[in-house]
């Protein structure tokens, strides 16, 4: 419910003075439909006007000249601008218009009249000139602002007009109760909300435009806090949904002792967090984040065993057939041995298999279902589903996850959700993208891994690379060879990959598999399976090497045109090797011909050479994009913030996240004075209707 104090801000922009039918669509497009949206439109620049004379005019700055109109020098015609000469005591100032009517200008500037003109000073043939000046009569002198904010303008809507409208919107802005913590606000020395908006629209110097200006920080924090509150609320809504109480039992112990290794400290920690949620009686929503090879599957296996031990069913869903099979092959022997009947459900089951398996799930004879998209289809019924584990969660839509979760028994409550991701992301991104989930991180890899030696090699030395590769293949190694998307069209990329595969087949004299994105799924999986089973020693692939595929014998990764990949992507690719006991190598080939390596590309490759820590790489990737790649950020799941910049306001984001938890923790119904103020803040930004992608 929207508090009445906000009604003026949630009025249509058309209610503002000066918004006629002609500019209405332009304003809506530029700012948004509401008065609030104009109020939240930040100036992007600043004009400082200085009084000047013809003699002391400074080129490039904006001057105000007190002049008398002398005469129309050039009346203008197509291709030639209109030119009016004016004078002050010190010399001439020429006023220029491209297009427009000389008659109109003559009427505006009658000979002998005094005017104040303002605009950016230029020099042409050593004469002072102003193109398209702003003109004021002496009576209007106090309308000339010494400092004026500049707004993003659009065709048909000048910055001037927007400024007037923004001022109108500001007049509609009420004083609102303070929602920020008093001590925090005092410490940051930020203005109150309304004062911050007034300052936003009235910058007096360049620093006022920077993200760390107090007013801008304050508004950014408000926005981040509102968003984090919305996410925290969703988290709470889930938490008050009852769900089956799941605790470890004998099956868990048996699976644990069947694992051929000891869990790492990170795995134990994540498992403890998951078990705390599962036993709480509240619905779990947790993301298990860990680099490729960090051992997420074992953690998931224990959660599946816990569900079985507590008398419930569970499901593990993977995005591809090959991954689902791999999970099934690894987990079902352990689960079965622990007395937990496990089935595989994929799109490739025969009708008879399918019928039997669906029957086993519905009757409760099967306790764990491992599978693909086949799992959430309508025909799939569970007897007592308590836990859904989703591997590579970003490969599924929100709907698909919800369809699986909806298969629980309403009498026992909601289905616990454990999602897993092998894409380490910076904490900032985690908070905005997954803010409503709890997060466990596997920050440590299982022991016994041989680090991958990474080398950065110019493409020109590809012949040498091939020679070394041949020697390695001859002694029984397996290798990936990655061809990126380099050409304009997919068809020619494909041709390049095919040509490369043919080259390598000839040079190496071995079977070479080729996997690419345009292959039908089953065909591609067959190629992958040949490689996984060691039938082909070398696999040429475009970027589609399946995430999560584990071929321990593969110890060499060659990536062509590595400089054209993103950092995170390179890290993912490299993660395919270094999984076995053999020492592994990753060769990053860069540049074609003699085009040098750009600075960012160089830092990327160097970062990769230096570290294998996915979280560190993610932070660095994030930082490198900070130079301005709003598109990239959007793609990585950032909501469209108006004031906040998740990179520059990183610290504010972390603080806002803590703050949101604290506020709701102390005052869940938001009835305290601060709680009530916080409700106004939430209504002001209205994140509920404005959701970023993932959950
Ligand atoms: P991911 O997190 O990428 O899904 P996996 O679960 O597939 O990683 O694990 C990668 C490999 O590491 C598997 O071969 C698995 O058996 C092994 N592994 C997992 N945990 C440990 C551990 N604690 N000690 C040794 N090996 C482990
Ligand atoms: Mg995995």
UniProtKB/TrEMBL annotation:
> Per the database record, which ranges form the Helicase C-terminal domain?
464-623
Q: What class of enzyme is it?
A: hydrolase
Do you know which PROSITE patterns this protein is assigned to?
HELICASE_ATP_BIND_1 (PS51192), HELICASE_CTER (PS51194)
The record's GO molecular-function terms, alphabetically, read:
ATP binding; DNA binding; DNA helicase activity; hydrolase activity
Please list the residue ranges annotated as the Helicase ATP-binding domain: 277-442
Q: Does the keyword Glycoprotein apply?
A: no
EC code(s) of this entry: 3.6.4.12
InterPro entries, per the entry: DEAD/DEAH_box_helicase_dom, Helicase_ATP-bd, Helicase_C-like, NA-bd_OB-fold, P-loop_NTPase, RecG/Mfd, RecG_dom3_C
Cross-referenced Pfam families: DEAD (PF00270), Helicase_C (PF00271), RecG_dom3_C (PF19833)
The UniProt keywords, alphabetically, are: ATP-binding, DNA damage, DNA repair, DNA-binding, Helicase, Hydrolase, Nucleotide-binding
- Any single GO BP term: DNA repair
Identify this protein by name. Answer: ATP-dependent DNA helicase RecG
């Amino acid at each position: 419910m929207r508090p009445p104090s906000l009604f003026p801000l949630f009025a249509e922009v058309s209610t503002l003075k000066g918004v006629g039918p002609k500019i209405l669509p332009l304003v809506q497009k530029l700012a948004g439909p509401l008065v609030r949206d104009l109020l939240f439109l930040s100036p992007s620049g600043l004009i400082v006007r200085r009084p000047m004379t013809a003699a002391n005019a400074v080129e490039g700055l904006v001057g105000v000249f007190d002049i008398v109109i002398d005469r129309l020098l050039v009346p203008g015609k197509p291709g030639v601008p209109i030119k009016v000469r004016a004078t002050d005591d010190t010399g001439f100032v020429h006023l220029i218009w491209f297009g427009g009517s000389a008659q109109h200008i003559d009427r505006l500037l009658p000979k002998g009249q005094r005017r104040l003109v303002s605009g950016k000073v230029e020099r042409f043939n050593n004469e002072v000139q102003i193109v398209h000046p702003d003109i004021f009569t002496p009576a209007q002198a106090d309308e000339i602002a010494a400092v004026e904010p500049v707004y993003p303008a659009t065709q048909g809507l000048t910055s001037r007009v927007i400024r007037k409208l923004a001022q109108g919107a500001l007049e509609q802005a009420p004083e609102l109760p303070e929602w920020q913590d008093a001590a925090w606000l005092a410490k940051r020395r930020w203005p109150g909300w309304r004062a911050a908006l007034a300052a936003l629209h009235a910058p007096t110097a360049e620093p006022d435009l920077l993200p760390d200006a107090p007013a801008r920080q304050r508004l950014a924090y408000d926005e981040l806090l509102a968003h984090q509150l919305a996410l925290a609320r969703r988290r709470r809504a889930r938490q008050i949904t009852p769900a089956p109480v799941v605790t470890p039992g004998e099956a868990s112990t048996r699976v644990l002792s069947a694992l051929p290794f000891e869990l790492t400290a990170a795995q134990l920690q994540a498992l403890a967090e998951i078990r705390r949620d599962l036993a709480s009686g509240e619905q779990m929503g947790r993301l298990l984040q860990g680099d490729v090879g960090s051992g997420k599957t074992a953690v998931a296996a224990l959660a599946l065993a816990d569900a079985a031990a507590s008398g419930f069913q569970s499901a593990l869903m993977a995005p591809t057939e090959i991954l689902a099979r791999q999970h099934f092959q690894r987990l079902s022997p352990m689960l079965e041995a622990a007395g937990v009947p496990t089935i595989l459900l994929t799109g490739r089951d025969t009708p008879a298999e399918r019928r039997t398996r669906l029957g086993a799930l519905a009757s409760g004879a099967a306790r764990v279902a491992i599978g693909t998209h086949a799992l959430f289809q309508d025909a799939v019924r569970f007897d007592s589903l308590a836990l859904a584990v989703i591997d590579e969660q970003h490969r599924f839509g929100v709907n698909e996850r919800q369809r699986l979760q909806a298969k629980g028994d309403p009498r026992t409550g909601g289905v616990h959700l454990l999602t897993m991701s092998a894409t380490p992301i910076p904490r900032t991104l985690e908070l905005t993208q997954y803010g409503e989930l709890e997060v466990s991180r596997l920050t440590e890899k299982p022991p016994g891994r041989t680090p991958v030696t990474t080398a950065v090699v110019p493409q020109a030395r590809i012949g040498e690379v091939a020679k070394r590769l041949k020697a390695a293949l001859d002694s029984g190694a397996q290798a990936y060879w990655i061809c990126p998307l380099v050409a304009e069209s997919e068809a020619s990329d494909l041709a390049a990959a095919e040509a490369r595969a043919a080259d390598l087949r000839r040079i190496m004299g071995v079977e070479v598999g080729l996997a690419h994105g345009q292959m039908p799924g089953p065909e591609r999986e067959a190629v992958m399976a040949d490689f996984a089973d060691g039938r082909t020693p070398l696999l040429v692939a475009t970027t589609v090497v399946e995430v999560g595929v584990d071929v321990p014998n593969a110890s060499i990764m060659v990536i062509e045109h590595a400089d054209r990949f993103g950092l995170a992507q390179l890290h993912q690719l490299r993660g395919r090797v270094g999984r076995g006991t053999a020492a592994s190598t990753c060769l990053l080939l860069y540049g074609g011909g003699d085009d040098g390596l750009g600075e960012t590309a160089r830092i990327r490759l160097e970062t990769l050479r230096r570290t294998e820590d996915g979280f560190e790489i993610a932070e660095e990737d994030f930082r490198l994009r900070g130079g301005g790649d709003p598109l990239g950020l959007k793609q990585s799941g950032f909501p469209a913030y108006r004031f906040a910049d998740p990179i520059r306001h990183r610290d504010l984001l972390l603080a806002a996240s803590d703050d949101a938890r604290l506020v709701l923790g102390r005052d869940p119904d938001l009835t305290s004075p601060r709680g009530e103020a916080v409700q106004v803040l939430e209504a002001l930004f209205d994140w509920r209707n404005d959701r970023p992608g993932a959950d």
